[in-house]
Amino acid sequence: MNDADKQDLEATELVRPYVITNGRSLPRESQFSLITLVTATADEQQRPARLSPEEQNLLRMCVGGYLSVAEIAGHTQLPIGVVKILLAALSEAGYLVSRPPVARAPVANLQLLEEVLHGLQSKFG
């Protein structure tokens, strides 16, 4: 960790979450869960300079590819709620693309699996 990172960390600890999020509230849980994947859009030329330092940091982090919301929160050392609020704002502005988590697979039919197992056992011993 270099001196700039230490200063950023110290500054982040001094700023209240309400200030970082501009008083915005949490997005709905279905929009950003801990395992939602996020990446920056391809067009970096349209990014305004008026984004907060935290938002700019999130965008820089997401340029390299998909990261989960939990990974982003870990790297930034910001509370998960604050990260979700910032990601929602960036997503609404068109700077981020998110991919929802994959839905759970349905439970396999146990009877069918047993029939397949017995068939394989009878054929191959």
How many separate domains make up the residues?
1
Amount of beta strand? 5-15%
Give the overall average pLDDT: 79
What structural class do you assign from the helix and strand content? Answer: mainly alpha
Q: CATH first level: which class?
A: Mainly Alpha
CATH-level-4 superfamily name: Winged helix-like DNA-binding domain superfamily/Winged helix DNA-binding domain
CATH architecture identity: Orthogonal Bundle
Distance between the termini: 60 Å
Poorly predicted runs: none
- Radius of gyration over all CA atoms, rounded: 21 Å
Shape: elongated
Characterize the largest beta sheet: strand count, sense, and whether it forms a barrel. Answer: 3 strands, antiparallel
Here the CATH topology equals Arc Repressor Mutant, subunit A
Order of helices and strands: HHEHEHHEH
Strand order of the largest sheet: 2-1-3
Give a verbal description of the structure.
The chain is mostly helical and 125 residues long. Helix content is 50%, strand content 8%. Strands 2-1-3 form a 3-stranded antiparallel sheet. Helix 4 (69-76) crosses helix 5. It is elongated, with a radius of gyration of 21 Å. 17% of the residues are buried. The model has no long low-confidence stretch (mean pLDDT 79).
Label this structure with key terms.
3 strands; mainly alpha; Arc Repressor Mutant, subunit A; three-stranded antiparallel beta sheet; 125 residues
Provide a quick synopsis of the model.
With 125 residues, the chain is mostly helical. The protein has a three-stranded antiparallel sheet with strand order 2-1-3. The model has no long low-confidence stretch (mean pLDDT 79).
